């Protein structure tokens, strides 16, 4: 434990006896022999402090997570210094919990993998400095992880998915379509030109004051919208999907958010209620925004599949679409994507909701993938920095737009 305290910047360098005590606290038995490589993964890029120990074959030996969602719901969004403070308060406990449930002694780890990009600077900094001190004390290799690469590769922990495959990453901070050709070989086909769908859903949920709704008070914005939408009629409001004329794979959500904002203000006037009270039509608005979001995402993804097939970047008959990120846990959006994959003879794969949102397992698994491929394993961490902004792969979105592929209309009967 003292070793971790030191890593958190609390104590000075521990003595040999303290290190021994620390190892003993993990029930380390010399008889424990792990045949596979073991990676400790640490994630602090946004508002979840998470850690996990995963072996080379994808067995999750231990995991722990501390979510800050409840705190940020109260402040109406993530306040970076608050997120930083919460990461600082929890990182040691979470890493310790992941290690102790795994029954793996730190000395048995093959490497430590940590998210270093992209994300909130203050949050990334906590995970990185903690990890670097741990790496230094344990004398283990360090594997810096790209958060979106980790989301994209998570599926390979669960299913036998070969490269290349198409990935759609939809979360609170990101929205992109990419072709995954290898562990760190991505072609970026399109991305959001403004905000991510999760961010938009979070903003709409806040504007609808869903935190005051008895059924949704502890849910993230996106989850609250999905929950409430089940009680609403999506046809009650007719929101047009964004960017209908742009024949590329980019996304946009700000315009839709503003339209919804206007409708809410108008409805508040009609119902004679104050901002902050819950509208009687909140469920209809939730259903309509979810449907429009699903249609927009489905259309851009449909075009990406057609582009990849046209250029022979994906198998004609055996193509795989992987959907991940926090918004991928939305079952309505998944169904819309299923309509697209059925129409294009693709297989749709989504990790379970727990692995779609931020977690330590995906970071540890990305470490395993990199270890196996011999990519980006550092034995010297001098000069390593976190990067709040970092694109994923080679951007070919302009070429995708120039191809101007017309997408056949599909009946979105969800
Ligand atoms: O991947 P994630 O945990 O964090 C990053 O943004 O990287 O995603 C969190 C986002 C939030 O915006 C949240 O509202 C959204 O995912 N989300 C959902 C659902 N569950 C979480 N959006 C739609 N439907 C859901 N069921
Ligand atoms: Zn994420």
TrEMBL record:
User: Could you give the cofactor binding note from the entry?
Assistant: Binds 1 divalent metal cation per subunit.
PANTHER family, A to Z: TRNA N6-ADENOSINE THREONYLCARBAMOYLTRANSFERASE, TRNA N6-ADENOSINE THREONYLCARBAMOYLTRANSFERASE, MITOCHONDRIAL
Identify the EC number(s).
2.3.1.234
Q: Which organism is it from?
A: Panthera tigris altaica
Q: What is this protein called?
A: N(6)-L-threonylcarbamoyladenine synthase
| Family matches, as InterPro entries | ATPase_NBD (IPR043129), Gcp-like_dom (IPR000905), KAE1/TsaD (IPR017861), TsaD (IPR022450)
Q: Which cofactor does it need?
A: a divalent metal cation
* Gene designation per UniProt: OSGEPL1
Membrane-spanning ranges: none
What this chain does, per the entry, is described as: Required for the formation of a threonylcarbamoyl group on adenosine at position 37 (t(6)A37) in mitochondrial tRNAs that read codons beginning with adenine. Probably involved in the transfer of the threonylcarbamoyl moiety of threonylcarbamoyl-AMP (TC-AMP) to the N6 group of A37. Involved in mitochondrial genome maintenance.
